[in-house]
Amino acid sequence: MKGILKSKSKKIYGLVGRGISYSFSAKYFNDKFTKKEMDNCYYQNFDLEYIGELRNVLDETKKLKGLNVTIPYKEDIIPMMDSLSKTARIIGAVNTITISKKGKLKGYNTDYFGFKKALKPLLESHHEKALILGTGGASKAIAYALRKLKIEYDFVSRTATDVIFSYDDLDKEIFDEYQIIINTTPVGTYPNVNEYPALDYNLFTEKHIAFDLVYNPEETAFLKKAAAHGATTSNGYKMLVYQAEKAWKIWNK
């Protein structure tokens, strides 16, 4: 575990994850604090090798007020919560945590809110069904948002089951039926910028939306290859901004 800030003068917020030096959150929030002249606030990364190290963070970080959670801990962190919001309980994943004065942890999910708000302006009448690439914690929030938008969806994983497509299953017939393709996996994240989900990108058309939760790089190989066949594309940056602002409201309500 890296870099616990022991400060008695600042309100500390942070991001819990693994391999998160590239992360959006610390720069976003510290820039926000600077712009708003909130000198009493600071945001830092808590890069944990395993989720049990969070106990050390909670014990040693003074004035810790709130946390965000990212890959790979959005599901693993749930048993450590004292309570969950209704939405986080339904989704089964946590990406935002409040810490009470008594040290009680409450888990929330703001990913679904950020994704829903980012996707909605891209939707047209023919966008009725979606494929969610990946089955991790992030995918659960995406599924919840799609339900709220009344969009049908199915999951795609490396191994097929009775209810999950494999990548090898995806053919023209399926692509014609599912015209929103959402990558919730970390494939293509910096520094592995030449990697992309194993799809036949010739199946994308101008009627498709390709949405990648990855935001670094700005245009992933997945988005480039989909755009080359006319798809509307979006990375995860706007989603992150929307979910971050929602988290900030939760921390300060």
From TrEMBL:
<dbReference type="GO" id="GO:0005829">
    <property type="term" value="C:cytosol"/>
</dbReference>
<dbReference type="InterPro" id="IPR013708">
    <property type="entry name" value="Shikimate_DH-bd_N"/>
</dbReference>
<dbReference type="GO" id="GO:0019632">
    <property type="term" value="P:shikimate metabolic process"/>
</dbReference>
<dbReference type="GO" id="GO:0009423">
    <property type="term" value="P:chorismate biosynthetic process"/>
</dbReference>
<dbReference type="GO" id="GO:0004764">
    <property type="term" value="F:shikimate 3-dehydrogenase (NADP+) activity"/>
</dbReference>
<dbReference type="InterPro" id="IPR022893">
    <property type="entry name" value="Shikimate_DH_fam"/>
</dbReference>
<keyword id="KW-0057">Aromatic amino acid biosynthesis</keyword>
<keyword id="KW-0028">Amino-acid biosynthesis</keyword>
<feature type="domain" description="Shikimate dehydrogenase substrate binding N-terminal">
    <location>
        <begin position="15"/>
        <end position="97"/>
    </location>
</feature>
<dbReference type="InterPro" id="IPR046346">
    <property type="entry name" value="Aminoacid_DH-like_N_sf"/>
</dbReference>
<comment type="pathway">
    <text>Metabolic intermediate biosynthesis; chorismate biosynthesis; chorismate from D-erythrose 4-phosphate and phosphoenolpyruvate: step 4/7.</text>
</comment>
<dbReference type="InterPro" id="IPR036291">
    <property type="entry name" value="NAD(P)-bd_dom_sf"/>
</dbReference>
<dbReference type="Pfam" id="PF08501">
    <property type="entry name" value="Shikimate_dh_N"/>
</dbReference>
<dbReference type="GO" id="GO:0009073">
    <property type="term" value="P:aromatic amino acid family biosynthetic process"/>
</dbReference>
<dbReference type="GO" id="GO:0050661">
    <property type="term" value="F:NADP binding"/>
</dbReference>
<keyword id="KW-0560">Oxidoreductase</keyword>
<protein>
    <submittedName>
        <fullName>Putative shikimate 5-dehydrogenase</fullName>
    </submittedName>
</protein>
